[in-house]
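Instructor's aside before we start: the two examples that follow are unrelated to each other. I chose them only because their records fit on one page, so don't look for a connection. First example below.
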Amino acid sequence: MSLALVVLLALVAAGILAVALRTPDPAQTEVVAVAPTTPDAQPVTAGSTLAARPCPTTARPFEPTRVDVPGVDRGAGVVFPARARVDVPGTPSTDSTGKQQFAYDRVQDVQPGDRRGNVLLNAHTFPDGSALGNRLLDGLREGGRLVLSDGDRRLCYRVTERLEVSADANFYRYYDQDGPARVAIVVCSGERLGPGIWTRRTVWFARPSA
């Protein structure tokens, strides 16, 4: 199967998310985190001080280590797993820490602050509803805010689009490297048919916004 025909399939170990251009064997999937983990993210309300803070929309490019989603999660950690294959972005671990984290795809070579392309993030969805992806599905809508930071720099984004696609569909837009600067997040959604098998993917696109 050629790379040109395969773009967005997600796989999950034990019924959770993984983002993939094709569907690998879950038994052969290995996630290698190369950044330190952070404490579990904590839910916040829409009226939190974070939601009210001014935030820049331009910065020197940086790798995000934290993602704040006012009204959904505060301080979700970011890990940088190696790709499971050349065309398969890695995911967080599936332990109690990893299920509360985002994975950032370094191979995409787009960072917050770059002028073009999508910053690729993904998160796990758990069948018991306990993971970060579940909270994103419940609470992140069009117009919602994201704040990406690395401790020194931070950028704000506003969600401009939320959509669902079939788990079997090719979805080239997620991997755009030449379009306007955006954050693109994907999680498993729809019906869970079995371990690692979900019927849908939910994708959010967010643009820089003060």
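Example two begins here.
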Amino acid sequence: MKHKILIVDDHFVVREGLKLILETNEEYEVIGEAEDGSKALELVDEVNPDVILMDLNMPKVSGLEAIRELNKRQSTVPIIILTTYNEDELMMQGLSLGAKGYLLKDTTRENLFRTIESALRGETLLQPEITTRIFSSNHTPSFSEQSILTQRELDVLKRVADGKTSKAIALYLNISERTVKSYLTNIYTKLDVTSRSQAVAVAIEKGLLHR
């Protein structure tokens, strides 16, 4: 059975480009397209997608507003943000709202599929080349913010921001994968988040992660 993809972007060319790429993979089927968040919300109920590719900067109802509304509805459909190089602030807001990852609109075919596959597994695929770019906008953390996470938790979170899996983090830090997951649970609790992407977004916002 094919995985159903909903594409939400106000630019026809972007939607068509993504659709053409997705149709080259027999595992995926584009079952809907929307040009704004309002139409996207209607289609989510109608077509029941497995993954949503969501632009954030759209007329009428933005992608951020659509994500907030889906959160209110307690939707469990994973959302992948479609972004450009000048939308870092919007991207971080989207991640903090629970989006599973992000893609540049000119992403490669391989990266598109890899990100979708991670989202379908309930995982978050963060791209270090994008994450690195937004560290420069961090504010200086207060003492109370600095003390939120232990050094080991920060070590784990830095690897998460680099796009590493739990297994890779365990090997890098010479600890067990179970221990990594335990650290992640602590991080989620302390930052009041529920996913890797949210943890990274909130940590960057608070100035806890640095390059």
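The first helix runs from residue 12 to 22.
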